[in-house]
Amino acid sequence: MTNTTHPRELLKQPSAEILASLPAMGRVMLSARSGGATHERMGVVGTVTIDGTKARLEGEFHDSTLDLSVVTRLVADRTSKMRDRVLPRLECQDAAGEVLFSLIGLDGLELFDKALALFGPGEALEPVERESAAGGGSPDVPQDDLGAATFAAILRNAVPVSIDFTKPGLAQHWGGALPEPKPAMGFVNIMQGDFHLHLRAGAVAGWLRQVVGSEVELAAHDSDGQPFGLVLRGPAAAFDGVPLGNAHG
Fold first, then answer.
1. Which of 138, 178, 207, 228, by CA, is between 20 and 30 Å from 218?
2. In total, how many domains does the chain have?
3. Residue 112 parent element (H or E)
4. Cα–Cα distance between 156 and 198 in angstroms, integer?
5. pLDDT for position 3
6. Is the domain of 90 the same as that of 193?
7. 135 inside domain
8. Does 206 reside within a domain?
């Protein structure tokens, strides 16, 4: 943090201008949550392309589209720590100030502040209590958990899939050969160097199956029958043996 910045501040510039600084921040994690799923891409942002109200984050480690008609406020927060290390973030907020998702500077405060230096200080804000990302999960993942059974079947089938995530203001994509799922702390965890999916046990009550062109899509639904933004895509063979639960399609 420099002498001209605040621990937590609302940046004054348009979101498009600020997002263009992401490639200079080093490794960045775009972390989004909804309905018991946390979908994360991490690594250096190769390019940021602005097209009207859309911002495309692309490169070897990122593939996402931000809707700037929804993401209208960016807050630079320097209060989050992991152990003794500051992990600064840009909170992507809507007009009401609700945090939709965050862009976290994994290489620390120096690169984060250097990338944002040309924007000058923002409007100082009060620090906020930060919710634990893994809070609320049961200690173990039940053997009959639908999310765990789904990814176990995909792993056995050994066919590459896409794991996509949408919520207001964001669409984020990952695709490839599925890493081995790791159940821990009440979550099914799919993790590799540039991608994490943390899926809370019980979050998926059913998959709505649709055929779109040459691919099958499985959209996750919760216990109320509502989608929460997590969609799996791939050839039909990728999903052989996947139980659909209570949302069959």
1. 138
2. 2
3. helix 109-116
4. 20
5. 52
6. no
7. no
8. yes
